[in-house]
Structure formats: C-alpha cells, structure tokens
C-alpha cells in the first residue's frame, strides 16, 4: 500500500530540467593504517566527513558497531524510501527503526528537541528546506559533507554541511481515468463543471508541503507570483464556491475508494500511485500543469545529538551515492545529483525515462518569499475553503 505523508511547506532552488531511554555512547573510530586524516578516538558526533573516521571503510565499521539507525517521517512509498531502507539494511547489516512514517517536518524538528538524550531521538531528518534552514539556525544539526559533496550544486546546500537537498518534484494533477471521462491538464481545467466535488489536495497547505505547493502553483497559474500567493487562495475559494473543491485529504485509501478522483500532489506521489492503483482496477494518470509549474526540494540533516552518529553519517553517504540517488529516481523523485549523474553516465536511464514529462527549467522563490506566502496562507486558508 502506498503511504501518504503530510509534509510541511518548504523553499527550494534547483537548476536541473516519547519513551525515555539512555542516549547511546559516542562512537569512536581509530585512524586507518595510512593515516586517513583521522585522529585517534574521534567522536562520531563531531566527524564532518568520512575522512575523519579514516575513510569510508572505517565509517562503515563504526556504524556497524552501533548497529542501528532511528528515522521518522519516511513512508515506504514516498520517494521510494521503502526500497532505500531495505537496500541500506542489506548493504550494511544495520537495523533501521522507522517510526511514524506519516509525520510532518515540524514533528521531526520537535522530536529532535524533545527527545534529546534519548535513544529514540531521530538520527537523521528529511525535512522541507525551510525547516532545514530554521533547524540549522537553532543549532540542532551537525555539519557533515558526504563524499559527493562537490557534486551537489552550491545553492542546494548549507556551506558547512548543516543541511543539503536530496530530492524534489513538481506539483502535478493526478486523475482516475476510469471514473473521469477527460482528465484535467491545467489549473484552469479544474474549474470545469464536470469536476464538481472531485478536486482534492494532499493535506492542508498550512501544514503540508505538497498542499502548500499546490496553492503556490495555482497562484502562478492565475497571475500571481512568488511575491503574491493571494491568487492561489482566490483560486481555491472559487473552486470551493463552484462546488469543485473536495475537502477530503488525499490518501491511497481515498483514491482506491473513489473519494478523491482528482488530486493535486507531488508528481512523484501521483506517479507512484499508478502501478499500485492499476492492481485495484484504477487507471491513475499524472500530468504537470503547464499553467502553474512549481518545483520544490526536501533536505537532509543530521541530528547534532544523534544517538547513532556514525550510522547517521553512513546513511547520508548512502543516500548521496549513485545507488541511493538512483533509488530516489526509481520512486519518480528527481534527485539533486541528477545533472551530475547524467553527465557522468551513472544515471538509471530507464528510471529517468519514467519521470512525468515537463518542459523548461523551474524557477524558485526566496526564503523570504516563502515565509510571506506561509503567513498569507495561515491567515486566509480557512476562510477561503470553509463554509
């Protein structure tokens, strides 16, 4: 079953087309025979690269000694995390405790704060970039640079390694072509009378990243800009007033039951629904609307007080390896290293070919523009769709 995930709103910029427990003891690693740039007794919590362990092999040894990694907010069918988790476990023999997969970015940050010193604290975070930025400002993360650091575009990472973008997607429109005679292809189409009561969002835009992006994309489609999300609010108010807006939040179950026959969501979510829904007799189609293109990325960070600090760093190395990035791609998500992988020929071309098509390159709001948009939504969303 495909899992849905309520994710909090994030900013992006991409250039491509609790139970109390004792905290784990710090992990140390001896230097390699060749020196490797690692001092004896290095604390894994302060290691800023694999070199600090004496190389990747020494990092693997330290992570295996810890034996566990604790993650939250990673649904198995969100960006292919199910297969990513299984691949990591198989490769390194490290057990992954995956808790509360449907949690939001805000929940991840809260868990870092409230579980400090506990073995159940999240070792790593996968959050909307605005939460990565705020978490770094609060001093919650440890700086770390993966071995492929130089391949990550400069505008996709915090310079010291406190956070770095991992994957992203476009706002898209999903549609059950078995129940809808002609699926919508644009935001303008969504106002057509035949879609009465059928247009849903994956969450509340004041809390969910995909829903926030859906409103931002609608604003762009209706004459707004990154400085002005108000037309997006007006669009959804009109969608509500015409009777087309469906307040049921999209999940795989609502799609299967026919409760959400049209859904505004990330393209990697909508695209991933298709094969699963085909097994249920549905024909789920995905299109990126031409009148409201909006792309957004999520980011990785390491908890400064991670109970399994070596495993946390090895997890990042895996995610930003060719294998990890291609696994994201296999889940229809667009990995941050896609341009570099296309250039060096390491990209999974079959997986890339399965991405929903889109023309041109995306443009992105600034952090200040996103924060302003979030404020507008916080004050106006309820009034726009209530009643």
Descriptive overview:
It contains 13 helices and twelve strands. It is an alpha+beta fold and 387 residues long. The strands form three sheets. Strands 5, 6, 7, 8, 9, 10, 11 and 12 form an eight-stranded mixed sheet that branches. Helix 2 links the parallel strand 3 and strand 4. The relative contact order is 0.20. About 9% of the residues have low confidence.
Present the secondary structure layout:
Blueprint: E1 28-29, E2 42-43, H1 56-66, E3 68-72, H2 81-92, E4 95-99, H3 105-114, E5 124-128, H4 129-137, E6 141-142, E7 164-176, E8 199-201, H5 209-221, H6 230-241, H7 252-256, E9 262-266, H8 267-278, E10 284-287, E11 295-303, H9 309-319, H10 322-330, E12 334-335, H11 338-344, H12 349-353, H13 367-385
Parallel strand pairs: 3-4, 8-9
Antiparallel strand pairs: 1-2, 5-11, 6-11, 7-9, 7-10, 7-11, 7-12
Give a brief outline of the structure:
By secondary structure, the protein is α+β, with helices and mostly antiparallel strands. The chain is built from 13 helices and twelve strands. The chain is 35% helix and 15% strand.
